[in-house]
Records
---
Amino acid sequence: MRPIKSFVLISLTVLAACSSGGLGGSADGVYAPGIARNGQEVDPLVVGHRLMAAGEFELALEAYTRAASQQGLNVDTLSALGSANLQLGRLGQAEQFLRRAVQEQGDFPAAWNNLGVILMERGKIAEAAETFRRAYATDSGNSDEIRDNLRLALAKLENPGYLGTQENEEFQLVYGEDVNFIPFEPL
């Protein structure tokens, strides 16, 4: 029996070595990237932003955590960690990260905006409206999404029963330096 097992094991090993699959790349180009041969790594913040846009919030949080370990807890990493935690429903953690981000740099519109989304989710409408005002002011009024968040918060402040005029009217999260937007799905 032993020679048969050895023969089967050797045959499988030889066949596996002939296969085009395995740890290498496939012909269609869909595979996880290996180690960067030129020594350059993609910025984990960029990876996290892409994962957030794809709806992969847990993976984005991991990328942002990696960025924080490499770059430290700066305004970009704090804001990113807060935004990922918000999407994962961890409002307390998200609020802590975003409050630290706006304390560190008071003119970062993404952090102000996302803090406003958290405050709205927690029912702190007056504080949220003021936070959206700051986000809009620090962005110099360039962001339609931040303006819409401010408008919606002010409408809810004036009329707490306000549900919005459109079915899909929801707050927008901002992430990344170049101000990208993704909708926030309330919990």
---
Amino acid sequence: MKVLIIGAKGQLGSELCRMFQEDCEVVAADLPELDITDAKGVEAIVSHCGPGLVINAAAYTDVEGAQNDRRGAFDVNETGARHVAASAKQAGAPVVYFSTDYVFFGAHDREVEPEDPIMPRGVYAESKAAGEEATRAANPNHFIVRTAWLYGPGGNNFVEKILRAAETQPEVTVVQDEVGCPTHTFDLAEATRALCRTTAYGTYHGVNRGCCSRYEFARKIFSLAGVTTPVMPCTMEEFPSQAPRPAFSALSTQRLTKACGYVMRPWQQALAHYMERRKQRI
């Protein structure tokens, strides 16, 4: 099968390319050659490619920056998503759209299911929720996969940021009351491939199993990396951000496993795998 992966240069897009190249013909597209806010450009590449599957891994992911760039965030995450999904439908191909745990802002004391009501707050979350709806409306054959706390090779992610901080600071302070699911791009790419081998279209959660606070995540990163810099806990109130962030957004992956049989491994195992990949520069 020929697979068109849009946003192929990002940490998730590049991982998807590596994964799908094992048994598919992959066509990779990204800026500056392709801007998904350009409807004609998207239609042209999809028409020329003739894919059996279109994966939209392009996104506006600057959570803080989005607060002052509403138009930019919605242009990519909603309008761009609509262009990709519509062009895929025109080509007779299903589409994959990646969303975020940030669409859930309500108070939760359990893992959130895909069918639970969303409550996006902040421009980034609102734009991704709008992208979900745009994708659903434009192409009935869609896989919407919500993920969280994503990290992978080449990305400017939490793992890399916290390790850089340890090199320059006597101690690192991390919030302990923001809880979520750290997710390795390797696992998400594998899960996406397994899901796309089915026709079980719909909305799913793709995260590594279990959850932790940012503080616990940082401690585990340092432990695996052999970093001795002290990690100090703080609250989100003590470490304010411009964009609102959900305090608890653990996602359930049961629907994903039921649909395609793929079981997401615990976040601790996935992180250990990533740290080994860093050593080998994979």
---
Amino acid sequence: MLGYLSRLAAWMVFMAALILWPAGTLAYPAGWVFIGLFAASGLAGILWLSKYSPSLLRERMASPLQRDQKPWDRVWLLLFMVVFLGWIVFMSWDAARTGFTAIPVWVQALGVVAIVVNGAGTWWTFRENAFAAPVVKIQEGQQVIDTGPYAIVRHPMYTSALFLFIGVPLLLGSWLGLAVSALLILGLAWRAVHEERTLRAELKGYDGYAARVRYRFVPFVW
């Protein structure tokens, strides 16, 4: 547990540097709200998973590049992490460039709500699926999950991420960051399609599940 908490602390210090350094000031309330939200959600996730799903906690805290991971996913995840971190830096810089006034406070509050929805959706996914690893691989004993959010969409974690990609630029105050969100969403969609090829080929029962639950991200859309 202490090791996980130490990693969370180090990650939050790193994220704080990514946000505050390009902003050029510590007087960035939205940046501090963002840091606080992620610290709180990270701590809550560690505490809940340590009690109810320790194996999933180990998976979520493991290296993003793993031996059993599909090779294409290693490349995708590395590129995605670079773009994501660059996105955070860019939005902080962009918000400072506009004097932190480009987005009204009430819209920033909507961004907070979207980030909270992402956290709730992530928790719901974790509660239903102890195999929700951050990398594409088939785990020992893995089986198809079709309850909870998986009865609505096939990739509920990605659905939750849509709220994150919209909420973060709104909170941080960057309309241009919201435009970049479209690229992140497209990247996530590409991964979902390729991930499903692995699931259909290697996970028993996934074809039948995909026939029952037709939509990947958004019901009645895709």
---
Amino acid sequence: MIDLKGRRALVTGGSRGVGAATALLLAECGADVGIGYRSRERDAADVVRQIADRGVRGFAHAADLGAPGGTESLFARAARELGGLDIFVGNAGIWPVEDVPAGAMDDERWARTMRENVDTMFTTTRAAIQAISDRGRIVLVSSTAGQRGEAGHADYAASKGAMISFVKSIAVELAPRDITANCVAPGWIDTEMCDVPFAGEGRGRIERTIPLGRIASARDIAGPIVFLCSELARHITGEVLNVNGGSVLCG
């Protein structure tokens, strides 16, 4: 039902997990897809190979989006390879795995999380706004933590909450160009990032907190992202689409 033929997409954090699953699903729907990644060259090359197997154009570009020139190089590559941009999925970010109460959190951890999750979100989305065509789509990957908070991870929760406020702001700014801007807010996802909390009996404990009784796959998150990139969602903007199996019921 979703036809993205002729659309040109860029996904950050695209070498693994949700980013890779999103890139591949966009390609399945007919879009040409570029991915940004930091260091996993082999994984990124495998994603590009799978994109090509779907009969569309793809590329991977290594860039540290938190470093000077990183964002600029990624978007310059997208312009060369794709000739423009219609879809931007901002997925790059970190989740510091260690629980640290806010009162004990040092400046370095706070600053790193803000740099990786907020500053890079701003610079990449700003570049996307400048590059994207009218009737474009912007989707940023937030988190349930950005809505309800997360004890021991106040830095992460604050960064993802900032993303939600940011997307609501740009949704109004971009509406005259018929560009939509939305967030997807996942709960727990079966990806490498969550290996530590899933270890031992952790996975079972977490599954028991989810009404649907299972942890989302990366593709479970990619589907709602691609929906928001499609014409089916053309009248949705400034929204937060929760994908968490019912574990966090936010209005």
